[in-house]
Amino acid sequence: MSELNQIALKIISDGKGILAADESNGTMTKRLEAVNVASTPENRLLFREILFSSTSIRECIGGVILYDETINQTTSLKNSIPDLISSSGAVTGIKVDTGAKELANSPEEKITEGLDGLRLRLKKYYQLGARFTKWRGVYYINRTSPSKLAIHCNAHALARYSALVQECGMVPIVEPEVLMDGDHSAETCFEVTSEVIKKCFEELILHKVDLSGIILKPNMILAGNSSKNKISNEEVSSQTLSCLKESVPSEVPGIAFLSGGQSEIEATENLNLINKNNNTNFIMTYSYGRALQQSAIKFWSKNIKDVQGTQNIFNHRAKMCTMAAQGKWSKELENK
Ligand code: 13P
């Protein structure tokens, strides 16, 4: 087993999943302003430190993805954030892309940037304690998107990123996210997601990336959020499984889904069914941002000093996701 494969397995084995707490300052500002909390560096740290010092980081979370601001912050007890995370046995991750920008000659689409100078930034993050990384490519579905151009250049960037990350001794999370915005059918989501993922692996292989040392972070197969033809949770699970079975090479150790705008319960229930019906050799777990933090941030915003209350809510959510990552979640458990 390679060292990278061991790190990947440490993050996602035994029902553990990933807490995606790597919202950029822009995104975090939107999340905080939505609950009437000022988006200052202190408040961003306060909320995140509450999550990172929860008992579920030890029990449920194998890896935490940070944003550049957070990895450089110090806890209230003057420890580094990576030390706080590793003291619970979880692995520190870091978002290394610099965001999705307008794609030249296809201005309605996006290309994720951040390759220039990446090798040096990766070395710095490794020294700070990071052992895995994230890069997100984003794809829209509409009549003309995603174009071949967007599919090609985002796959190329994900592959160049992955090769550099592995060179630096870290595990790349490869995240091609087909957005759920729009009124497209689940069938279209299936076709687009398959094409996008296949192209990513074509490029990863071309760039000689060790597939046993990556984690794939895809979307589930869902109808668009304004579609009138939603599919059942059972269908989400079976279509997601068949899409991944035919598009992902078997060397990949695991798949950690993004929540993508699903509610906390939807994201948990769908993951649970995916694991109940899992007919692949992949570990199937979560790498959720909103579906782990939504209730916690809402509660916290009412009284930002209520550490225990906020942690209770976060711990419950993480526990439910970890049950789902083992196919053991139920509505009764959720409401206990
Ligand atoms: P969501 O689970 O909120 O989609 O966030 C996951 C993520 O990290 C997106 O890049």
Structural descriptors:
14 helices, alpha/beta, binds 1,3-dihydroxyacetonephosphate, 10 strands, TIM Barrel, two-stranded antiparallel ribbon, 336 residues
Shape: globular
For the largest beta sheet, what order do the strands appear in spatially? 1-2-3-6-7-8-9-10
Question: In sequence order, what are the helices and strands, one letter per element?
Answer: HEHHHEHHEEEHEHEHEHEHEHHH
| Average pLDDT score | 98
Low-confidence stretches: none
Number of domain modules: 1
Structural class: alpha/beta
What is the CATH third-level topology name?
TIM Barrel
Alpha carbon gyration radius: 19 Å
Strand percentage: 15-25%
CATH level 1 class label: Alpha Beta
The biggest beta sheet is recorded as: 8 strands, parallel, barrel
Which hetero compounds are present in the coordinates? 1,3-dihydroxyacetonephosphate
CATH homologous superfamily classification: Aldolase class I
Tally of helical runs = 14
Range of helix content = 40-55%
End-to-end separation in angstroms reads 40 Å
Provide the CATH architecture: Alpha-Beta Barrel
Would you report the number of β strands? 10
